[in-house]
Amino acid sequence: MKSAATRLAVGDLLALLAFAVIGLLSHDRAVSVGGLARDFLPIAVGYGAAALAFGAWQRPGLRTLLSAWLVGVTAGVAIRAVALGRDPDGDQLAFGDRAAQKQDQAREQPID
Q1: Any idea what DSSP says for residue 94?
Q2: Looking at the 3D structure of the chain, how many domains does it have?
Q3: How far is 72 from 51, CA to CA, in rounded Å?
Q4: Is this model's pTM higher than 0.90 or not?
Q5: Domain range spanning residue 67?
Q6: Rounded Cα–Cα distance for residues 101 and 79 (Å)
Q7: pLDDT band at 103, cuts 50/70/90?
């Protein structure tokens, strides 16, 4: 039987894989080996390194998960941007901030 840490790592990687597939489909891209290599691998590497550094699989808990997720996914998105020849100027890293701004704007709109 696999260890708890192995099950957690596999579960996290499957969640990241699902995130990459949803991203490809939502941007009208085919789910392909190349697309997954471009979108999944950098984020999986960033998250995996952060999860090891924060002990997310050895000492599971909300704090270690959120720390690893925040640092690892952000690093993975930056790695992906560099690999694609984009300037990692924060535009892609600010996705969460933009989503929150759009929600705030929607709340401020008068209801007809």
Answers
A1: T
A2: 1
A3: 7
A4: no
A5: 4-108
A6: 25
A7: very low
